[in-house]
Amino acid sequence: MTNRASGSTLDQPLGMQNIEPIAETRVDSPRLELSDGRRGEIMQVPRWREEDRSVATITCACGAVSIEAVGAPLMCVICNCESCRTAGRELDSRSPVAPIVDASGGTAVVLWRKDQLKCVRGSDKWAAHRLSPGSPSRRMFTSCCGTPIFGDFTKGFWASIYRDRIPDAPKPSMRVMMSDAPDDVALPDDGLPRFRNRPGKFLLKLLTTWASMGFRTPKIAGVPD
Length: 225
Ligand SMILES: [Zn+2]
Ligand SMILES: [Zn+2]
What we know:
alpha+beta; three-stranded antiparallel beta sheet; binds zinc ion
């Protein structure tokens, strides 16, 4: 499954790179098909903007596993839910990189469309952590060095990449699921809006993105089911 066809990009330094061919293949993403046959009149799929023609490279600590992320992420949030905290601490206990759960119990994640992610190295080195057997939610780390890479709601179209793994990652825009945080939690005075659950603008961003994808639920190329 490892895609080494575009090997030249693998040898470049980490960070934002410009590889037009991948972005070009995404230009004709599916448009919303209306029931009466009109196409895309209500919700046009935006064409790639020039600033989106970039690739972020996400790697584990030892470098054996690498994902390329094309274009712009959906958003960056800090999740304070119980599941992220519990699973994150277990992953952090054997991780060689900085903790994904911060001092106040939040996990910063960058949401990215799965069809804009591709494992380009180390496809055989993925391991999944689940809080309960058979759960549709799994958190993916690497078997080579134990680096947590992303959270995956397997029925969803997005992946939640642990922010520290992304070079030049966007800043968080909100804290969500504060209802799961302990009442006496001490939060940094960073001015971020805090929401008890997942606010409407969060859900709307997911919904409009999913609609623009024709409500497909793609998988991440090169990552096992
Ligand atoms: Zn590794
Ligand atoms: Zn969470």
